[in-house]
Amino acid sequence: MRALALLLTLPLAVAAEPFVPSGDAEIVQRLPYRVDAAERQRRAALARDPAQLPLAAATARAALQRARVHGDPRELGVAQAALAPWWQLADAPAEAVLLRARVLQARHEFDAAQADLRRLLARGDLTPQDRAQALLDAAALHQLRGELPEARARCEPLQPLAALPAAACLAELDSLSGKATSAARTLAGLSPGRTVPPWLALMRAELAERLGDEAAAPGLYRTALAGEDAVYTRAALADWLLARRRAAAALGLVEDSPDAEADALLLRRVIALRQLGRDAAMPTALLRERLAAAERREPGRHAREQARFALDVEQQPREALRLARANWALQREPADALLLLRAALAAGRDGDATRRELAATLRDKGWQDARLATLDRSFAP
After folding, report:
1. Fewer CB near the terminus (10 Å): N or C of the chain?
2. Alpha carbons 345 and 270: distance in angstroms, whole number
3. Does this model's pTM top 0.85?
4. How far, in Å, CA of 349 to CA of 317, rounded?
């Protein structure tokens, strides 16, 4: 059920000076992976005949996986290039449409991704496998946007096609609709043995954190680190540690990653260094430049980490509140609610109206989140 890992090609609303290395020997960024010989051969074959859909789909799928695993947004361009012959076709083959929608979603072009999936699900020529995948992707996208009834309407018909993903999907929606405790039991029951699949461990870890289960959450996050959402999961666990002022552990977690230079982890590194009172000037300058470059590429599209940078690094609560509100208009996951509340509280009286609006919205949905209640009793169940 997890949406694609967050790819932090994020805009920054403030001017930024370009990051300039101090010398030729200074490392600007380490790439955590190399494209293997098989992938190079596949790209060469595709360049000779771009209309080979099986080859194009394999290339796009591999690029999306690398983007997800390593948090590298450049791979989205590789995926789009592979799908170029079908990129503008409304009636493209189902496989191409599914991959196109994933690229669009990863770029936060949610309306376009949703339109692709809606048109695809209206077709009568889908295989059961393609229909199941389209339903799952559409449900994830609706959930990300806080459209829970619409997400449920996509999860329910998934049950005869893919029982386990459907059960997880419905449980996660229950967890956001006033049934968090029973949802946690349901998710635990989906893997009754000692071995928990990483994707399920990640869902359970995030729910455990919302329920305030201090014993379960970190272990589940560490189990989830074995999965393909490694950058996303490592960032989530780092946030769990940072929220408990365990900055040294968070810093070690980030720096131990082969993807330590990914923007998501670089941000957590900067925050951890600041909490520890250590010099963070160089990574802060590098992150600021990356975010500014992303702003030039895709202005105004990604505000979650932009707001986090303004709040926790630049110490600009009013700007953070503005950005967090823009982000909440785009996506409405628990992390977005937490960010909006933190920004509203940091902004003082300027954030009072936002805090009240958020509390009313989440109360209507039945959201339970111990983190919100800890910050503001208005969010207590």
Report:
1. C
2. 22
3. yes
4. 11
